[in-house]
Amino acid sequence: IDRAGVAIHYDVTGVSQDAPLVLCTHGYSLTGAMWQADAAALADRYRVVTWDIRGHGFSASLDDPAAYSKALTLGDMTALLDEVNADRAVLMGHSLGGYLSLSFHVEHPERVRALVLVGTGPGYRNPEARAGWNAHAEERARQFEQHGLAGLEDAPGHGGRHTSTRGLALAARGILAQHDGLVMEDLPNIRVPTLIVVGADDKPFIGASEYMEKRIPGSRRVVLPDAGHMPN
Q1: Which of 12, 31, 164, 211 is the most buried (most CB within 10 A)?
Q2: Full-model pTM
Q3: Please, how many CA atoms are within 13 Å of residue 42, restricted to the half-sphere of its CB?
């Protein structure tokens, strides 16, 4: 789809137009390829949309920093649902994709059928903690600028699809970085079925998964043994 000159790549897997839709959003520096096996497993019951966040994979990687923001990315998610004629969707997101899925719920709760939050967290209310996260995002950007795509070629979920170091760096600064605590504040307002999945070895996100389970009414948390940051 064309989003004001930014091409957003997506794939659709599954049964008829009448089946419930699952929109799968990948983590930072990964691509929609990370969901290939998941989409195949769900294809007999759902339509599954996998996609590449702007700056990632086959989606456009513009040189303009203004082309990268959480607001624009949430707009991409809305446009994808519109493109496949889905009023509502199950949002399944990994890491950054989980945070974006929660952010989407803040803005468009009426379009969220359920949430599957994989190896992710709700961000930070504390400005100092958020500044620490943003320093991490800046470091990720600098690593790509200095070392290119080295080390990603064999990474699970990469799929050999990235085309731009510049896009990944700008996505870190514009999409991965956080600016408020709205997602964390919205957790008690979530009224859709919510599944929280975390790997037992994913130490940075164990605490976040516990926090979300306590704050999201009726949510269920599953800890997968012998799994790290990509439990899917």
Answers
A1: 31
A2: 0.96
A3: 21
